[in-house]
């Protein structure tokens, strides 16, 4: 009996005698013959042929596998890897994929895959169709005499967010025995990609499989953030951006095309923008991806802090990053030639914001003697003599104290000096919330070595002489011996004198920094603070003398036909009616008369400037009106003095009241202590009863008097 089955029968009376041809389970499908019976010829023939065919097929397969491993080089490329981008770009450019007969068609923005599409989208704004070969249909092409097959073995899919292809695999087979052909092909594709300047895909650093990227983060608190911002703004690096934030804020002026733009298009926050960085230093071009992350808005100070600029380089070469930072710094300095950068703090005690102010020429300052020249020469000499300081073992720092009446030009001098010396100003107000000894030390250690540290109104760290005097006049103490008056005055600054002295003396403040402090009340400053070594140069600013008054006057009125440049001030061309109608001699006369009318050393230049602003282009009117103005100033002064006296009297009255209350309380305490224990208990019980009934009665009246 003949039978075939998939597995050998359990009985030993069967024997195996050949395969069943073309069986899908040819390893297991055999003919099994009863040992006792003879094999019929037709079965013998079929089983022998089957064995021959199967053996031949297996040999052929093995030979093919050996052959393909010897004669074909295979390589797999996955999406989201740079090598995939190189090869795909190369294939698209050489229209290899267009030879295919089966496509996947997608519509994307023309800029995302320029080679794969017609340029329609660039003109009509509608997205372009992109033809991609369908998976599992290989495309063949010849490259340097070798046949190469391209197979999208695994189809990618469009990312729901970005529309970019993810998850796909590209299989390249090169019909050659030489392995290095693959290297050469990939190298050529890579070079082609670099040269063609195809917009690279957006990258997410942490998800990159290749990891061949460099990322640099520029935090807002660091000045390098400003460099980068200046670079991005000035080079129009992001002009091809597709995501925008629209702003009409004055602070975003830099993103506009012109200073008078009312609407500015800024690159959208937290989106990945790409631009080609062409280095003027090396001539190399590298793709960069930039993400601008805004900081958190602080409602108190109206400043945003904690913002970041993240730059990802499509390169692993650190010199490109160094080059970029260098270019950004240069651009920043270039932009700042006519500007002075002022760094401000937030109310958490960190450098938070930089504003730029137009540079002010020292010559526009009206100061007596050669004060301007003296400060400038002193500061220059200091900056140039770092080696000398080091050799002499003296800390390389210099402190300037500008003190005197308000509105006399102290701050203006420092700003003009910063412009002249090309230094940035780091501005600290000791009265700002969030500034205490700790944050002050941190702020100062976070400043660069060559800069101007400006501490305005340094006296706020200490009680004013007025406060002290009042307390000395009437030293009213509470029952614990604490002064009543002082506890009611809020602290003027959280910075202590010792904290301030420590900071000024700290090692970190020895690096060529110019410290400027201003005050209207030098008499309130501790002598330790203003001693040489901390404040090396002290300059007093007084109210304007006669010479200064006449100089301010002349600065306000241009001479006929003189270099009064209206265009520079953005005022347009001058109409004939606005031309000055006075001569130089007349102007001198007006100025002298004006200076005679104003009492010397009584008014600040800021005050005089305020008056002259009302009379611009009318010198004779300014002279005529000055007496009226002086009268109004006198009245204002008198009213102010009266108000001050009233306030002082009110404070004195309150202090007196507080003292009387305290005395009365002390008298009650004394009586209580003198009375016996029972009396004391009685008093307490009475007080308790009153304490409970009082509010209850009150509530009843408030809620309606029925219960009364
Ligand atoms: N000496 C001066 N020369 C030219 N302009 C001056 C001078 N003094 C004051 N001004 C003008 O007055 C205004 C106020 O000046 P500034 O802020 O420099 O005074 P300040 O002494 O720092 O005042 P404060 O002590 O109140 O801070 C500015 O617009 C400035 O142009």
UniProtKB/TrEMBL annotation:
PROSITE patterns: AAA (PS00674). InterPro entries: AAA+_ATPase (IPR003593), AAA_lid_BCS1 (IPR057495), ATPase_AAA_core (IPR003959), ATPase_AAA_CS (IPR003960), BCS1_N (IPR014851), Mitochondrial_chaperone_BCS1 (IPR050747), P-loop_NTPase (IPR027417). GO terms for cellular component: mitochondrial inner membrane. Keywords: ATP-binding, Hydrolase, Membrane, Mitochondrion, Mitochondrion inner membrane, Nucleotide-binding, Transmembrane, Transmembrane helix. It is a single-pass membrane protein. Residues 396-545 form the AAA+ ATPase domain. Residues 47-235 form the BCS1 N-terminal domain. The keyword NAD does not apply. It comes from the Eukaryota. One of its GO terms (molecular function) is ATP binding. The keyword DNA repair does not apply. Pfam families: AAA, AAA_lid_BCS1, BCS1_N. Residues 465-491, 655-694 are annotated as: Disordered. PANTHER family: BCS1 AAA-TYPE ATPASE. Belongs to the AAA ATPase family. BCS1 subfamily. This is P-loop containing nucleoside triphosphate hydrolase protein.
């Amino acid at each position: 009996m003949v039978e075939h089955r998939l597995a050998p029968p359990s009985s030993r009376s069967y024997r195996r005698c050949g395969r069943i041809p073309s069986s899908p389970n040819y390893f297991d499908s055999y003919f099994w013959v009863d040992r006792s019976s003879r094999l019929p010829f037709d079965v013998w023939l079929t089983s022998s042929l089957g064995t021959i065919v199967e053996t031949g097929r297996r040999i052929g397969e093995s030979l093919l596998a050996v052959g393909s491993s010897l004669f074909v080089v295979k390589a797999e490329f996955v999406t989201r890897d740079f090598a995939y981008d190189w090869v795909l770009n190369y294939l698209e450019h050489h229209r290899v994929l267009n030879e295919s007969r089966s496509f996947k068609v997608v519509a994307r923005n023309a800029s995302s895959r320029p080679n794969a599409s017609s340029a329609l989208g660039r003109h009509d704004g509608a997205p372009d169709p992109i033809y991609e070969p369908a998976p599992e249909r290989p495309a063949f092409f010849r490259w340097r005499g070798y046949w190469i097959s391209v197979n999208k073995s695994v189809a990618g899919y469009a990312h729901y967010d970005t529309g970019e292809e993810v998850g796909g695999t590209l299989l390249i087979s090169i019909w050659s025995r030489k392995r290095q052909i693959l290297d050469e092909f990939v190298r050529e594709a890579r070079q082609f990609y670099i040269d063609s300047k195809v917009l690279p895909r957006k990258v997410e650093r942490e998800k990159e499989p290749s990891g061949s990227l460099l990322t640099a983060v520029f935090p807002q608190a660091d000045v390098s953030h400003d460099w980068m911002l200046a670079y991005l703004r000035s080079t129009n690096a992001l002009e091809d951006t597709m995501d925008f934030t629209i702003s009409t804020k004055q602070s975003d002026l830099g993103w506009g095309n012109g200073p008078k733009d009312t609407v500015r298009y800024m690159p959208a926050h937290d989106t990945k923008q790409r631009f080609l960085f062409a280095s003027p230093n090396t001539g190399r071009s590298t793709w960069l991806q930039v993400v601008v992350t805004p900081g958190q808005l602080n409602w108190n100070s109206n400043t945003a802090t904690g913002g970041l600029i993240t730059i990802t380089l499509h390169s692993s070469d650190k010199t490109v990053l160094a080059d970029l930072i260098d270019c950004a710094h240069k651009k920043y300095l270039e932009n700042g030639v006519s500007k002075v950068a002022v760094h401000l703090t937030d109310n958490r005690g960190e450098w938070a914001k930089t504003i730029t102010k137009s540079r002010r020429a020292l010559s526009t300052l009206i100061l007596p003697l050669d004060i301007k020249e003296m400060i400038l020469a002193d500061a220059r000499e200091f900056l140039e003599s770092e080696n000398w300081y080091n050799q002499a073992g003296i800390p390389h720092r210099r402190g300037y104290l500008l003190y005197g009446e308000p509105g006399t030009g102290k701050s203006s001098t420092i700003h003009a000096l910063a412009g002249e010396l090309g230094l940035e100003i780091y501005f600290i107000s000791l009265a700002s919330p969030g500034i205490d000894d700790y944050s002050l030390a941190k702020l100062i250690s976070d400043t660069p070595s060559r800069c101007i540290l400006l501490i305005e109104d340094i006296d706020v760290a200490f009680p004013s002489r007025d406060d002290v005097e009042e307390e000395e006049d009437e030293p009213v103490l509470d029952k614990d011996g604490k002064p009543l008056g002082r506890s009611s005055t809020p602290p003027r600054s959280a910075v202590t004198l010792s904290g301030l002295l420590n900071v000024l003396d700290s090692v970190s403040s020895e690096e060529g920094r110019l410290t400027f402090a201003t005050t209207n009340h030098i008499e309130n400053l501790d002598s330790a603070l203003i001693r040489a070594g901390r404040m090396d140069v002290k300059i007093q600013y007084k109210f304007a003398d006669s010479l200064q008054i006449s100089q301010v006057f002349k600065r306000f009125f241009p001479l006929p036909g003189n270099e009064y440049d209206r265009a520079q001030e953005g005022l347009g061309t001058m109409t004939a009616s606005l031309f000055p109608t006075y001569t130089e001699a007349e102007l001198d006369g007006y100025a002298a008369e004006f200076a005679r009318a104003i009492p010397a050393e009584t008014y600040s230049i800021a005050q005089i400037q305020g008056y002259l602003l009302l009379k611009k282009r009318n010198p004779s009117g300014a002279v005529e009106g000055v007496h009226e103005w002086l009268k109004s100033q006198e009245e204002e002064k008198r009213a102010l003095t009266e108000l001050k006296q009233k306030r002082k009297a009110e404070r004195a009255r309150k202090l007196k009241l507080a003292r009387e209350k305290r005395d009365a309380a002390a008298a009650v305490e004394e009586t209580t202590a003198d009375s016996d224990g029972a009396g004391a208990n009685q008093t307490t019980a009475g007080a308790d009863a009153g304490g409970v009934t009082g509010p209850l009665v009150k509530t009843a009246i408030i809620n309606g008097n029925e219960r009364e």
